[in-house]
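job 3f2a | input accepted
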Amino acid sequence: MSPKHPDNVPKYPGTVRELAGDISRMRYNTLAKFLKVLTFEVDYQSIEDRERGRVKLANALLDLGEKLEAAQQAADAAWEICKPYMKEK
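job 3f2a | predicted structure (89 res):
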């Protein structure tokens, strides 16, 4: 059984640095989708922690979620700039 909060991504064989590099090289629309899902997951954790009485942690996660949402919007903007120059898959 894997730990609830592992230090790595169990299904990804590379390092965290390699993972960040691989994610940063995705198409920006795909990066935006990833950030949107990540935002949802972090927001959900915030709700769960608030329900458990972990208010400081919940607030920190809420702040993180807001920043991830801003990053997702920036990735969407980058995609709109690049989209006309990208080949269809």
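job 3f2a | The mean pLDDT is 92.
job 3f2a | closed
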